[in-house]
From TrEMBL:
Pfam families in the record: Sulfotransfer_1, WSC
Cross-referenced Gene3D superfamilies: P-loop containing nucleotide triphosphate hydrolases
Protein name per Swiss-Prot or TrEMBL: WSC domain-containing protein
Gene source species: Albula glossodonta (roundjaw bonefish)
Record-linked InterPro entries: P-loop_NTPase, Sialate-O-sulfotransferase, Sulfotransferase_dom, WSC_carb-bd
Similarity-based family: Belongs to the WSCD family.
GO molecular function, one term: sulfotransferase activity
Domain of life (superkingdom): Eukaryota
Domain called WSC: residue spans: 115-208
Amino acid sequence: MRGGQWLRATDGMRLEGAAGSGGPVHPGFCQTAGRNSAEQATLHRDAIISAPATCGTPKPTDVRIHSGHLSAGYQFAGLEYGAECYCGNRISSSRTREEDCNLDCKGEKGSPYRNVRNRGCFQRPKNTTAAFLVHSVQPNLTSQSCVETCTTRELPLAVLRRPDCFCGYVSPLFPLHHPAEEAHCALANSSGPTASADLDYFQVYQTPVQDSRCTDRKFLPEKSDTLVALSSFPGAGNTWVRHLIELATGYYTGSFYFDGSLYNKGFKGEKDYWKSGRTICVKTHESGQREVEMYDSAILLIRNPYRCLMAEFNRKCAGHLGHASEQHWKSSEWPEFVSSYASWWASHVLDWLKFGRRVLVVHYEDLQGALFPQLRLIASFLNVSVTEERLLCAESNQDGHFKRPGARQHGFDPFTPEMKRLIDGYILTVDRALRDSNYTGLPREYLPR
């Protein structure tokens, strides 16, 4: 059983002054949070910060932490993942590297709100009054002022077409599934003359506010008689898909293993016995006839083996969200890893196709390209009725804290010609097995050229 990574970095600051005095904040130390920091007298989680913190806007975040925790009588405050706050009067864990706290935030680099995401340009909904909860007219409207307006109202979408700023949620009236060319919004928001047709387009931003319509989760109200596997080769995105399933269905997922770091990040089904029947599905990387036949049905998650192997090697070298160093890639460890793991990628799929009683094949790349219909398909397979609003919410919150940031660019190709011949042979074998089992073959991007 793999062990979880218990240490996490917390960005800390010292608070000075009498309670409620608004004394100075002294940022600048970074330390690891203990394996159970919420239960220690070190940095206790506090509910004072209710809205997500805005990474890249240190003044509002520091002020909020400062005023709340100082008034509660604490000396230190720390921010974890840019959103969860801990406070206390003693720090027992060791100081760590500043880089561990200087994490990249989601969104546009250089923007005033680093975790604001530009969702793109979209056609105006037929009924803006019904589609949005807030409408304000701002003669000098900017994207920043609209985002600030909607963030203040604690709404996740900021939608603008000068001079109008709208705030709301992704919904069936405004699903954000068909982006338009950015040129339409550039014209609609310019100060010059604008064609009437371009006024029908809105620029959409995701604010730092989390869409909370799908964040409530629970165990199954009644123990299930059937056991559903969420099966994948390591590195195929199993944790990310668990996150999506929990958002879409509202039920916790379980695991054949136990990873303390995932439990601490909100996967409460992680501690449950995998056969408890209280979770909607169970993560597993196992294969072989006996292991497969323990489950009544399975979602078989498949990812491009080149991506899988790199993701799993990154995890082994640097944890769930880290990247292996160039030294790792150029060591003997990497070719040995490929030699042993590439065949496992193929045998894992082949075993589940051969011995699985009822199998839904899901390709990681299809989730990336068309998440909404794939989530609907998965929910149907799990026999869970979900609303369109919940699926749209899951789509908006798709990354969470459980997906490694974009691949680090290498100055070289880590796969040698010999490795490619080996992996390409396994790709052809799996593609043929899928077709022989009446499934769609592998995505074309997998296939050797």
